[in-house]
Every structure is written in structure tokens, then in C-alpha cells.
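Sat 14:20. Reprocessing the chain from the morning session after the first attempt stalled halfway. Input below, unchanged.
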Amino acid sequence: MFARITECTLKSEKMDDFTRAMHDEVRPILQKQTGFVDEITLVSDVNPGQAIVLTFWSSREDAERYELQTYPRILNSLQALLSGPPTVNQANVADSTAQKIGPRKNTAA
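Finished this time. C-alpha cells:
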């Protein structure tokens, strides 16, 4: 399992618009992507305008395909809500209590 961690700073008073866009516009696009597993949007209650979007993928290759083919279109659609470019980090999922999210299983015997 592989994760993309996208950190965003939103324009003032755009948090509700951002969470609505993530749910209504972005999530349906993500759900159509090969290897997509789950998406979690976090919004800070300490730092107004800060949001983190976690997306989980079956493999690094699936996440990289999304990064090249689909993410630019999503970023463009959210541009009016952002106060600057987001930062994206990636990580292997080592452990999770979520049903669908967990470490990649080694299928070699």
C-alpha cells in the first residue's frame, strides 16, 4: 500500500468550499483511478486554512500514474481555493487499523 500526502493552504473562508469540492468533485474522480483505495481530508482546527489530503493506492505505480495523468487536472480545478501550491509527499503504508488500508503484503512464499 502506498500513500500520497498533499498539504494545502487555503484562501480565507474557503475551507467549506474545499471540503465540499473534495467530496463532490475530487472523490468521484479518484474512485475511477486504477489502484485507488481511499481518501481522507483533514482540516486543521489550530491553523485556519491548513488542510491535508491523504490518498491511498495499491502500489507506487498506481500513485505515480495518478500524479502524471489526473492530479494536474484536479489541482487546476481547486486552484481558486488555494493560496499557493500544495506540497506532496509520498510514503509506504507500514501499518493501519482501517479495513482497506494496510501494508503491502509480500506475496512471495
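The radius of gyration is 14 Å.
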